[in-house]
Specification:
The chain has helices at residues 2-12, 18-55, 62-99, 105-144. It has 145 residues and is mostly helical. The longest helix is centred in the C-terminal third of the chain and has 40 residues, at 105-144. The N and C termini lie far apart (66 Å).
């Protein structure tokens, strides 16, 4: 039903090329998956940090541990904001498709901004994960000596 309705809307209105709608939908789905994976990865990093506190606690590392804890919490907040933005954009796409069939020009601008924000978040999270891996390696290397 949804597929037929979408095709009918797209045939009746040439303002939204079907190719663009599919591209938007594909990108939005990919972003949702990426952000869900990010949330899971961040939970794993927080669990690894907890393990360090339990098993390899070093008083000299307390400041770095607290810093990572703060960064992981901040990452949760930022990821949740991005997830909300993606969901809002997804809702906007469908409401515009089904209400009047016209894609507002601002939609493309919002897509581009969100794409940039998510790209920046990927880089930030990759750097955070790498810094934590280095820290964890340092902690375990100290424990072996």
């Amino acid at each position: 039903f949804y597929s037929r309705l979408k095709k009918k809307l797209l045939k009746n209105n040439r303002d939204i090329p079907e190719k663009n709608v599919r591209q938007f939908q594909t990108e939005i789905v990919a972003w949702k998956e990426l952000l869900n994976i990010r949330m899971e990865e961040n939970v794993l990093l927080k669990n690894r940090l907890s393990d360090i506190l339990i098993n390899n606690y070093d008083q000299n590392s307390l400041e770095e541990i607290e810093e990572f804890q703060t960064k992981f919490s901040k990452e949760d907040e930022l990821t949740n904001l991005l997830r909300r933005d993606v969901s809002d954009l997804d809702n906007l796409l469908y409401s515009q498709m089904f209400e009047d069939g016209k894609m507002d020009k601002s939609f493309d601008i919002k897509m581009q901004k969100l794409c940039k924000d998510i790209g920046n978040s990927v880089t930030r999270f990759r750097n955070l994960r790498s810094a934590f891996d280095d820290f964890q390696h340092k902690i375990f290397s100290k424990g072996e000596n």
